[in-house]
Amino acid sequence: MKKIFIDGSEGTTGLRIHERFQNREDIELLKISSELRKDLNERKRLINESDITFLCLPDGAARESVSLVENENVIVIDTSTAHRTEEGWAYGFPELSKEHENAVRNGKRIAVPGCHATGFISLVYPLITGGIMAKDYPVSSFSLTGYSGGGKKMIAEYEENDRASEYDAPRQYALSQQHKHLREMQKITGLQKMPLFSPIVADYYSGMLVTLPLYTDMLTGCQTPEAIQEYFEKYYEGQKFVHVMPLGAESEYNGLLSGNSCSGWDGLRIYVTGNEDRVLVMSQFDNLGKGASGAAIQCLNLVMGCETDKGLNV
Predict the structure, then answer these.
(1) In the prediction, which pLDDT does 38 show?
(2) In the structure, what pLDDT confidence band is assigned to residue 12 with cuts at 50, 70 and 90?
(3) From the CB of residue 52, how many other CB atoms can be counted at a distance below 10 Å?
(4) Strand runs (DSSP E) across the chain, as ranges?
(5) For 112, which DSSP code?
(6) Catalytic residue at 222?
(7) SS3 at position 27
């Protein structure tokens, strides 16, 4: 029985993590009263009483919470951006390599990947690791996401009865190329330059589709959609949470891939499409699942040594 505290349990990610603890017999949830959830001393007490603390907070508050840890046995799983590129923190994407898996399994400080970063890194990291893509490749990517990724404020804006008409159409954002996930997207993959990244939010609740366009003549070797799909299939072979789809699988949806097809699911699908000159590699998942709270619970399960999909939908 592990004692778990969720610091920031009222946010979207915190609530989703709490939901996934329903009917689990191997944890005891330490609860904080609503009037004390911002009280520094009460948070400090609960953090240090816990075996594992989840941080579901803005970056500054997450750093503050880490500074409150005095019990050397406390394991921290941070869902914010604050520690994803920090030394001494395991990056919580165990499917990337055995080293990533072991770092999470044995770590005391674990950073859960960002949602856009999850989709991007699931595609770029294997290509660089396998020598198919050079680290100086001029990478660009776009990402379609549901509005839940923007947190409570954005959810409220989209669900207002008298909202502005601009919410009816997809909207591109982070136009200054300063998206908060860019640092981890570059560091974790080893790219020499930050990618050109275009995120798009649309009028649906959850789900994400991240696309990586590739010119085959800029890749190493003779690359085709068939070769790239086969490579990804071997790279992620045996993984519960990452499913590489057969070539042509998009035909089941008349050649259209939707951003919300994986809503409510905690895994990630990879599609490869295109032709001998230009290839699209895409990751499809739930920004609240593998892109947030689902990934956090997967990390917890690794730490606890139980089945990695316990409490999750894969």
Answers:
(1) 85
(2) confident
(3) 21
(4) 2-7, 27-30, 52-55, 75-78, 90-91, 109-111, 140-146, 171-172, 196-202, 208-215, 242-244, 268-274, 278-285
(5) P
(6) no
(7) strand
The arrangement of strands across the sheet holding 75-78 comes to 27-30, 2-7, 52-55, 75-78, 109-111, 90-91
DSSP class of residue 176 equals T
- Token pair, residue 131, equals 């020598």
Which residue from 104, 69, 31 is spatially nearest to 304, judged by alpha carbons? 104
pLDDT > 90? residue 185: yes
Structure tokens at 17: 């993590």
Is 169 exposed, middle or buried, given 0-12, 13-18 or 19+ CB atoms closer than 10 A? exposed
User: How many angstroms separate the CA atoms of 81 and 183, rounded?
Assistant: 10
CA gap 38, 40 in Å, rounded: 6
The length of the chain is 314
**pLDDT per position as a tens digit, 223-275:** 999 999 999 999 999 999 999 999 999 999 999 999 999 999 999 999 999 99
Burial class of residue 293, CB neighbours in 10 A (0-12, 13-18, 19+): buried
Whether 250 and 274 have beta carbons less than 8 Å apart is answered as no
Handedness of CA 82, 83, 85, 86 (dihedral sign): positive
Q: Which of 115, 262, 299, 306 is catalytic?
A: 115
C-alpha atoms less than 13 angstroms from C-alpha of 200 in its C-beta half-sphere: 15
For 129-158, what is the mean pLDDT? 96
Tokens of 176: 């200054």
Place of tokens 């520094």: 40
Tokens coding 69: 């840890």
Give the strand order in the sheet containing 208-215: 171-172, 196-202, 140-146, 208-215, 278-285, 268-274, 242-244
